[in-house]
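The freezer alarm interrupted the setup, so I double-checked each line after restarting. Inputs confirmed:
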Amino acid sequence: MTDPSDAALRAIAHPARRAMLRLVWDTERQASDLADATGLTRPAASQHLKQLREAGLMTVRVDANRRLYRADVAQMAQLASFLDAFWAAPLQRLQSAAERRTESGGAS
Amino acid sequence: MKLVAQELTIAADPAVVYRLLTDPAEFVRWMADEAVLDPRPGGVIRWTHANGDTCAGAFVELVPDRRVVFSYGWERPEVGIPPGSTTVEIDLHPTDDGRTRLRLVHHGLDEPMAGAHDGGWRHYLDRLRRLATGDAPGADPFATTRVPTPAELRTP
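Predicted 3D structure, all chains:
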């Protein structure tokens, strides 16, 4: 599995950016809609959008006379599977250690 | 008053460059997030960047593939350039080798806003040049920064 970029991990480490990703998970929206829906000022929202785009988690396309933003679900899926695997290994070790203790009667 | 003037050569036909200046579907690829352009004398020209700042004016003169003149200003009052209060003239000349010589003159600005617009036009005309020559300009690094106000520009 490919590790996600630091930029992608930093991008999801902010509640406003996570809120924005949820808003464009399966629909496209304009920057102004995203600002209004998250209660941010337009300049602040545009900074968050920029970070999401640079991290590769958001795509943009031109439709008639406007630009529309959408989550890049493939990139998000990669990020999700990385986080799953990241926790799976320590949890597996915890389980093994717990089972060993149980087998040895809890004394160690 | 200080004139902002710029010239650059674009490796594309004047008709291509003219379309990028007057067709809203093209305009949003190099200048803004949203644009309303009604390219006829008196028609609206209004665009909004991702940061919410909106520039507005009206077309004054259009000569297909040769010349675009429009009035220009910002809707946010603190910027101090009211909509339509300044004028942008853009002339397109075909060169002998099939390229376009673009000349832009922005009238009606005072310092320090003239200096800020000099940098702004350089940035956006470079994005226009890249789009006209098939080199996608991509995300606009200026789009997240609001237009500065004269007070902000005077603060060291």
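Quick read of the result. Strands of chain A lie at 58-63, 66-71.
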